[in-house]
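If you are new to this repository, start here. Below is one unmodified record pulled from the training split, so you can see the exact layout before writing a loader.
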Amino acid sequence: MRQMHETLIDKTFAEGVALTQEARNYIAYHDRAPRAANELPHCLHVGYQHTRVSARLIQAMSWLLAIKALLAGEISQEQFSSPTFAFSGGEECADPSGPDIEQLPSGLRSLLERSYHLYSRVQRLDGMVKARMMAGEVPEFAGHNVIQLHSL
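And here is the target side for that same chain:
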């Protein structure tokens, strides 16, 4: 039976899926026409910002899939803690700049802002989960997630 309240992981995952789909559609369809009229430096800058959005979303969604697998008992804490599932992204993903760049299309500025917020939230969750695991807390399985909405 589904829990009465949605977990923070479930809510964040659903948000990530929706944002990933939106970014995919934006990059594939909405930004094609204006590129033809712009000069190469502008096009390269837009492409760079697309890459930043994509990198943030890949990192966030990979981590969210891994934590869901951990909480479902599909992978061990050791596997989750391995470099394979490590949350990363570096300075480019952690840099909040972009939404303030007026030369960028408004849709891309919105994606930059929202992908940054999602990335930052997952980064905080990663730190929280690692701290709990280092303290010896063991995630529960069978539908009882460690991280509930009311715990943050």
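Two things worth knowing about this chain: The chain has one domain: 8-151. Residues 1-5, 141-145, 147-152 have pLDDT under 50 and may be disordered.
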